[in-house]
Write a structure and sequence with these properties.
mainly alpha, elongated
Amino acid sequence: MNQGVGNTSSRARRALALAAITIPLLATGANAWGAEVPRLSIALEGSDNPEDWFTGLKILALLTVLALAPSILVLMTSFTRILVVFAFLRQALGTQQTPPNQILIGLALFMTLFIMMPVWQKIDATALTPYLNEEISQQTALERAAKPLRAFMVRQTREDDLLLFLKAGRLPRPDSPETTPLTALIPAFVISELRTAFEIGFLIYIPFVVLDMVVASVLMSMGMMMLPPVMISLPLKIILFVLVDGWHLVTASLLQSFAPGG
């Protein structure tokens, strides 16, 4: 044990010594060839110009938006419903970690991009492109970008869920979907998505539960009570899922649930 710790410490010292020797050599070589060595510095200095403060605040706001980007992706798009349904499907099949989480998340992400593409195109045409061309202000761009996203969420949100947050926040009932406040719409959209995902997951579970019950009954009638039913039902469920083209059916059902009339 002590010998292993000593070897680790020796390797660490060698790595530090190598870095201490290599970095100055690289800098010296760069200077010899006439190349400039970049210098990184972080400074906090006073300024009498108010524009410097506004620039700093804009950078801080941009970093905040980037930090919240995963939450925006999950809570304001179709990603939640798709991923929850895939999780139910894998659990109903009983295949443990197959397909892996990376595969399911990647498929859910690309399906989200496909479903949300009309929304992104409207945002790009009405808000992003005019703003980059300096035709509209930043505030106008944000208002225009929120309209397609709000329309998508309103279409997928149940009225009861929306009224719940409007009453809790003591907000007036909007006259039209365009005037629905995002502070109440986003959480209402999330719980509506979870409800829909659980409904689809329940429908997916039914045939697999029936198959498990049939296999368990057959094994009990044959007196093979020591044999775990999952050993027989798992390959049968996989074969059934493949024969009915299950991935196609589940994907088609998810796409249809996000259709304007779905």
